[in-house]
Amino acid sequence: MNREANVLAPGFLIASPPLGDPNFDRTVVLLAVHSEGGALGFVVNRPAPMTLGELLSFAGYGNDLKHPGPVYLGGPVQPSSGWILCLDPELGAEETGVIPVGARVRVTSSRSAFDALAADAARGAVGAAAADPRRRTVLLGYSGWGPGQLEREIAAGAWLPTPLDEGVLFDVAADQRWEQAYALLGLSPIEVMSMRSIGEA
């Protein structure tokens, strides 16, 4: 595998306006893996219709969890699978179910990570940075691309790749992440739409 084939991960994929696919309209995807064999990512700005407490209760962690924290729809693939996005460089790639995304960001599906999250949620120690320095967020499902598929979609103008920015992930409200990810390129969605219209004239 050459370096060029892996240059997009870690990073963001910003949905071009309008993308057309309702699964990805106005989305920001955290691209975790990208190689000649395909790509794996997680939508990080589409809230699910349930709270963290409801999800953990549904998963069998007790019926008294009332944590109001958000859960996000990570993508259309295996929507019943759960993943934890966190800022935890101590979680190593050698651990089962852990995907390193850059130097400090991790995505994990391990049972032990969910056990710890449920215990902390019961104590109210999940959410804001002061309560949870690991900034844990739960994602349901993921986004996947086969060999060459993502490259074709980028070439067709469906996505704009950008570098990974922890601030967009952890310090920006979900409904503002799309615009803020564009700002990483010095652009706004309106400017991109205008450039596309001019190009099509």
Descriptive overview:
With about 200 residues, this protein is of the alpha+beta class. Helices cover about 25% and strands about 30% of the residues. It contains 6 helices and 10 strands. The protein has helices at about 50-60, 110-120, 150-155, 165-170, 175-185, 190-200, and strands at about 10-15, 30-35, 40-45, 45-50, 70-75, 75-85, 100, 105-110, 135-145, 160-165. Strands 1, 2, 3, 4, 5, 6, 7, 8, 9 and 10 form a 10-stranded mixed β-sheet that branches. The longest helix is centred in the middle third of the chain and has 12 residues, at about 110-120. The termini are far apart. The model is unreliable at about 1-5 and about 195-200 (pLDDT under 50).
Characteristic key phrases:
alpha+beta, ten-stranded mixed sheet
**Which class of secondary structure composition applies to the elements?**
alpha+beta
Summarize model confidence as the mean pLDDT.
85
Largest sheet: 10 strands, mixed
How far apart the termini lie comes to: 40 Å
Query: Which outline best applies?
Result: globular
Which regions have little confidence, pLDDT < 50, spanning 5+ residues? 1-6, 197-201
Which range best describes the helical content: under 10%, 10-25%, 25-40%, 40-55%, 55-70% or over 70%?
Answer: 10-25%
Radius of gyration: 17 Å
Portion of residues in beta strands equals: 25-35%
